[in-house]
Model the fold of this input.
Amino acid sequence: MSTAGRPTPSGARTRRGWLLWPVLAVALVAVVLVAGRPSGEGEPLSPESTGPLGLKGLVELLESFGAEVEVVGSGVDGFDVAFVPVPSTLSGEQIEELRDFARGGGRVVLAAPSEELSPAVLGLAPGLGGFGATLLEPGSCDITELVDAGTVESAGGFEFFVEAGYRSCYGDAGAAFVVAGPLGEGEVISVGGAGFFVNENLAAPIDESGLVSNSVVAVRLMVRSPGTRVAFYQTATEELADVTGDKSVTDFLSDGVKLGLVQLAVALIVYALYRARRLGRPISEPQPVEIAGSELVDAVGNLMRRSGSIEAAASLLRDHTRRGLCSALGLPLEAPTEVVADMAGARLGLDSEGLNAALGARPVHTEQQLVELARDLESIRWEVLHGERR
Done:
């Protein structure tokens, strides 16, 4: 891993750099958890779990080399090493307790990045985007216990910025998978990912000629000598047990995210309803112009006013109706009134005499007679066009 082109934090760590990496750290833990576990094998990252993602193998490995491992939720006085599987779940009091423990000469081993206790994270461990089995060589290693530890499998994870005064391994002078920083009389050792310590990765084979050395690294980091007392911080796994229980994906979302998703769903539904709205199938239907009695009187009055006399208005109404009947009967538009009346009577069954009187024989001298004539002509027109009287 070359340092060429690497970003260099100004100072121990920046708040901006920590906005992304804790999220990715949680994502890596989620990948481990979502992978699931066989029933009856315990919770992931639990010191009592014998499943692939448990840490029972780590506990037995340390004990086989003479360590005394005790699971604790707090209180590390009297121990030599404190191991934390998921540092992101530590409370403020626990963080201060671990700092005091290190200042007093203890060694804190973090299985994943911690914003408060680890150096700045530079990015994902190399190979497969940081999410897979990645074999790492010690590289430029100045952690004495790990110089000849051999190849390890990172199982996904991160690489840390190597700050001044820090020791590192499985990387180079700029970035490494394992970084040890001094704190008082003791030190804090940060490892790039919790998957490094789980049962299935402690002795995963490289090829037919050898094994990876995750177990060697774990022992050398935590067993300082026979009788070393190791405090296994289980508070993280208690919370992880909640995470891996019967909860659904939505249980991990904040209220703000849930509200945003609800608003988005409502917006999509409203948009879908808007786009799906239909006015119905077009219907073809006749649209006769029906003139109410008062409108008919008003129309006749306007006609009379324009024509200048009652007789002239009556003549216009009769001529308009006669021409309409001629069109309906297939007669010339100039056909005489008597011919139109007789033809309408013969073909349409109308009263020929009444039709002849309305079209020309009946005298019209008053406004009342003009209105009555207009009604009769409208009734004739309706009967011819629609086959019914009005």
